[in-house]
Write a structure and sequence with these properties.
Length: 566
């Protein structure tokens, strides 16, 4: 009985343990299933992240391929222009060595310059050919279309990147390339002194060139005008005309009249009020005045001022001369290199962008903020400013602008154009006085960083809207940053544009109507209070073409064409 009772008890205990074991096994299976689900979800998330990375890498790769294709196209275009230039130089060499006559050289030159058939495709290996062999091939290549474009020869003292001192260098190079892209032939001669200006004309005559236009620049080569009409016009240049460009009138070159005799001119004929005699110092001759008087057309480079304002307020003693010759005068704006300064293919930027896809601009802002060590937030308004000369800036006014804007949480990034002691001291003093974590001063110019400042900024403070050296307003518009005058404080407008009329440039009219009256404080308020309207304004600005190929080139071609009919 005792044993039987014990067996029954063990059996009961065993029966009770079976459901408990099943329950434990079920929970174990549940936990394993749960872990498997978590593992699968983790794997799925990792796969999605990897897919996103692949998509980003694919986009970066496609953008890089696009940039390389654009670079290849630009390189191919440059190579073709180089081949044509080399052909023209080889022709000049053949003339000077007596291999061919000036008449034959002139015909071949026109064929090279103006053929509808791409010369570069047929003479890509000219460096390996002897003159005789090359001449024979050129003669066989003579059945081409008649002349369509113009032949322009610049005589100037600057050309980027050969000799770069001021705004003339970039202007000559930028305009020349734009003219070539539109089918015109352009050559550049770089003399140093009045005497070498005459040597330039001697070279043109002896090489048999018959350009449509001799384009001379500022007082440095203005003497070409009198030399041409008094000495060289009868030496086979009867169909050539003269166009003078003036970057400004504050440098004119006054000399003793007898100096004219050194280059073959007659001082007694030219030292007259209606010719080269200076309007104020009448015992001297004024070389720039001579260029104005003896040119068929005078182009004044100014992006913001009208012809009337220039004659009456910016002529530096030449007002009476400009008034007499006012029908010759034409105002043209500067342009900029839109292949180097283009956010859609700028290799300095961490991510490209365009008016059709602006996401990259926010990436550029974060990169800029990170680089200079300020708060990284794409929604913070960032203002950039690139100085050429701090001496041209009203520092007290600038401090007031910065202090007012800083209280609104705005970031500022200042950079000097080049390492100049005076600029560095001024910026250091400015930084010390402000002591603001939202303001950064960069005392040394950096090319890559300058691109990032334009791309990462919402606003660019401009020392002037008429900026032929840095071209800050033009670059700002291209990169989707508002150009705002550094001289404007609310209710205290010191307008830079004191005059504009129907003779003003398209650029001046656009800037005046869109950003001319916008102070920094007002721009900040517009961005904060009406972002959609502000973004439309910025995107419209990005579509504007103010490059060398646009209004600048068109105005010059119009000027060239008009004087050929005189």
């Amino acid at each position: 009985m005792a044993l039987e009772g014990q067996d029954n008890s063990d059996m009961s205990e065993s029966m009770r343990s079976i459901p408990e074991k099943k329950h434990t096994d079920i929970w174990q299976l549940f936990r394993e299933a749960q872990q498997n689900i978590l593992y699968l979800n983790k794997q799925r998330m990792m796969a999605m992240e990897e897919l996103d990375n692949m998509k980003r890498e694919k986009k970066v790769l496609l953008d890089r391929i696009k940039q390389l294709e654009i670079k290849k196209q630009l390189s191919t275009r440059k190579d073709k222009l180089s081949i044509r230039s080399e052909l023209l130089l080889r022709l000049d060499s053949m003339v000077l060595t007596g291999m061919i006559g000036t008449g034959e050289a002139s015909d071949l030159r026109k064929m090279i310059m103006d053929s509808k058939v791409t010369v570069a495709d047929n003479f890509s290996d000219i460096l390996h050919k002897r003159d005789a062999e090359l001449l024979a091939e050129l003669c066989q290549f003579s059945d081409k279309s008649k002349k369509k474009g113009l032949h322009i020869v610049h005589i100037c003292t600057e050309m980027a990147p050969v000799i770069s001192v001021g705004s003339l260098a970039s202007y000559v190079t930028g305009l020349s390339r734009a003219l070539q892209r539109k089918g015109h032939s352009v050559e550049v001669i770089l003399p140093k002194f009045t005497y070498f200006s005459r040597a330039s004309l001697d070279y043109i005559v002896k090489s048999g060139k018959q350009p449509d236009v001799l384009h001379i620049h500022n007082w440095q080569t203005a003497i070409v005008g009198p030399l041409f009409w008094d000495v060289f016009v009868k030496q086979g240049l009867g169909s050539t005309r003269i166009l003078l460009t003036c970057q400004d009138f504050d440098s004119q070159c006054l000399e003793q009249p007898d100096k004219l005799g050194l280059c073959g001119l007659d001082p007694s004929r030219l030292h007259r009020h209606d010719r080269l005699q200076d309007n104020t110092k009448t015992h001297l001759v004024n070389i720039l005045k001579g260029g104005i008087v003896y040119s068929n057309k005078v182009v004044i480079m100014s992006s913001m001022h009208s012809k009337g304002l220039i004659i009456h307020s910016l002529s530096y003693g030449l007002e009476s001369t400009l008034a007499v010759h006012k029908d010759k005068l034409l105002v043209a704006p500067c342009g900029f290199d839109n292949s180097t300064w283009n956010p859609s293919m700028d290799h300095f930027l961490p991510q490209s962008y365009s008016v059709d896809d602006m996401k990259g601009k926010a990436v550029c802002k974060i990169a800029l903020q990170q680089h200079v060590g300020i708060s990284e937030n794409p929604s913070i308004i960032t203002v950039g400013c690139i100085f050429s000369e701090v001496s041209d800036v009203d520092l007290e006014n600038l401090k007031a602008l910065v202090c007012i804007a800083s209280r609104k949480g705005v970031q500022f990034i200042f950079m000097g154009m080049r390492k100049i002691e005076g600029i560095n001291r001024a910026l250091e003093s400015f930084e010390e006085e402000l002591k603001d974590d939202n303001v950064r001063f960069l005392n040394e110019y950096d090319e890559a960083l300058s691109h990032l400042i334009f791309a990462g900024s919402d606003i660019i403070l401009c020392q002037s809207f008429d900026d032929p050296v840095l071209q800050v307003p033009l670059k700002a518009l291209r990169y989707g940053a508002a150009p705002v005058a550094a001289t404007l404080i609310d209710n205290q407008f010191s307008r830079q544009i004191t005059d504009y009329d129907f003779e003003s440039t398209e650029f001046s009219q656009y800037i005046n109507n869109t950003f001319g009256n916008v102070s920094l404080s007002r721009a900040i308020d517009e961005i904060k209070n009406n972002p959609s309207q502000w973004n439309r304004k910025i995107m419209e600005a990005m579509t504007k073409d103010f490059s060398w190929d646009a209004e600048c080139c068109d105005k010059h071609v119009s000027a060239y064409t008009s004087i050929l009919n005189l």
